[in-house]
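Most newcomers find our protein records easier to grasp once they have seen one. To make this concrete, we reproduce a full record directly below:

…
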Amino acid sequence: MATVELRFSAQPEHVRTARLVAAAVARRAGVDEAVLDEVRLAVGEACSRAVGLHRSHGITAPVRVVLNEEEKTFSIEVGDGVTAGGTAGEARDGAASADSHESDAEGEDEMGLAVISGLVDDVEVTSGDDGGVIRMSWPTASAVALP
């Protein structure tokens, strides 16, 4: 049905905007008001994670957020440019991060994923040649309405 795509440069100050847009689209899609805080928090965590990955891997491509209203669900995909091998999905200058920074980033990455998993019942994390994607979904009012 309706899809909104948001792209923003990997700057922490843009995460708030992504959260606000996600909440507004979720509300319009029919996500229960009681769940909107969870949507905001989960999107904030996923976008913060993507921003951190972009910055630590020197990726200049924008973070991608896709908000999709389907018949009975509302889903959000947050994509980063870090491929399955942990390299940028686009050309880099070859500079490698220090080992301590990489292990710190991995710890923060795992913490962010744990928070998202605690907030969202339906979450899927994938990584491929085009980068990583966190897909989260929530039921809409039409999915929980009595027949």
